[in-house]
Write a structure and sequence with these properties.
Arc Repressor Mutant, subunit A, 188 residues, 64% helix, 3-stranded antiparallel beta sheet
């Protein structure tokens, strides 16, 4: 799926759950989908405008003056399904942490340990966040039909975080065999 189509799928997906303002679409993409999907905020409003032009969403006046609420149309739901059925073409991974560790000799053993410890703390925080989301879903009857699918993504995040914890522990143990070195010198 092309990048623009993925933005379209993200926006239509949010609107398939409930009709909301453009700002709320942006917030949902950041706060909900953000655990596994990032989207350029600069693309959201142009995408909403294009979706409205194409008859895939309808805009109505919101409660506040000047605000608009967007709702997905039947054609929009059909387009969402069409987009979601397209094969996934994963992008090559980009990990700043792995880039730094790959060139860890230039950084030094102690700095690498610090990076790994930070990754470990982040993974622990992610596990706590996923548990909080699970707890919140348990009390949210309004979106219950979506829960089995949302829980799949939460589970993937939990597995990934646990894998990072295991990797971090193993990596920290591996680094104990190395002598501390100054950045740019060879560790022995």
């Amino acid at each position: 799926m092309a990048r623009g189509s993925q933005t379209e799928a993200a926006v239509l997906g949010v609107l398939s759950v409930q009709s909301v303002t453009g700002y709320a679409v942006r917030e949902a993409i950041r706060d909900v989908l953000g655990h596994f999907w990032s989207e350029s905020f600069g693309q959201i409003y142009p995408t909403l405008a294009q979706l409205e032009h194409d008859g895939l969403v309808e805009r109505s006046h919101g409660e506040r003056a000047g605000s608009s609420v967007y709702a997905i149309t039947v054609a929009g739901r059909d387009r969402l399904v069409e987009l979601l059925r397209q094969p996934d073409h994963p992008a090559p991974p980009r990990s700043g942490l792995m880039l730094r560790l790959f060139f860890g000799n230039a950084l030094g053993v102690d700095a690498c340990r610090g990076l790994i410890r930070h990754a470990r703390v982040t993974a622990e925080e992610q596990l706590e966040t996923f548990q909080a989301i699970r707890d919140e879903l348990a009390s949210d009857a309004a979106t219950r039909e979506h829960h089995p699918y949302w829980l799949l993504t939460i589970s993937a995040g939990e597995h990934t975080a646990r894998a990072v914890l295991d990797w971090a522990d193993e990596s920290l143990e591996s680094l104990t065999a190395l002598e501390p070195n100054e950045p740019g010198t060879r560790a022995t």
